[in-house]
Amino acid sequence: MVLGQKLWEGKGKSAGTGLIKSVGMESITSEYSWTAQVKGMGCAEGLDGNINVTAVSITPPKGVGKAKDQGIFMMKTGDMAVLKGFDLMKMGEGMPSAVGLYTFMTMSEKIGWLNDLIALVAFEALDPMWMEVNITIYEWK
């Protein structure tokens, strides 16, 4: 796997504790939302904006959790894209972290290159409850 250039980085915040959908012996299934303000760089220079995501996660007490994401990416230029993705989260000792693969869809000609992009998204929690995170988005070549 080869990472391409870094496209965006910024800070994200959880929109709250979320909705618990089910509790089982092995995991908890929940729905939650988060937002991030990101700054563009590389070929995304000047494409700063906000990402708003709703996700459904399956989280074990320890080990690896997973989530399925969908959201909207609003650029300060007025352009917009929708996103879909999948995340894997480390739930062990210390600060949690996650990595995701995202795809985008847009009708905007200016950011039409997003339609061909697979993005690798890295999340670093700033607290154990995922209330604030650093987010970095890379192109995946």
In short:
With 141 residues, the chain is mainly beta.
Overview of the molecule:
This protein has no helices and 9 strands. By secondary structure, it is an all-beta fold. The protein has a single domain (3-140), classed as Porin, CATH 2.40.160. An 8-stranded antiparallel beta barrel has the order 1-3-4-5-6-7-8-9. A hairpin with a 4-residue loop joins strand 4 and strand 5. The radius of gyration is 15 Å and the shape is elongated. 24% of the residues are buried.
CATH class: Mainly Beta
* Number of structurally distinct domains: 1
Give the count of helical stretches: 0
Arithmetic mean of pLDDT: 93
Helix/strand structural class? mainly beta
- In spatial order, strands of the major sheet run 1-3-4-5-6-7-8-9
Terminal Cα separation, in Å? 7 Å
Would you tell me which CATH topology applies? Porin
Order of helices and strands: EEEEEEEEE
What helical percentage do the residues reach? under 10%
Shape: elongated
Q: What is the second-level CATH architecture?
A: Beta Barrel
Which range does the strand content fall in? over 45%
Count of individual beta strands: 9
Gyration radius, in Å: 15 Å
Low-confidence stretches: none
Main beta sheet: strand number and arrangement?
8 strands, antiparallel, barrel
Architecture blueprint of SSEs:
Layout: E1 3-14, E2 19-23, E3 28-40, E4 49-59, E5 64-75, E6 80-90, E7 97-105, E8 118-125, E9 132-140
Antiparallel strand pairs: 1-3, 1-9, 2-3, 3-4, 4-5, 5-6, 6-7, 7-8, 8-9
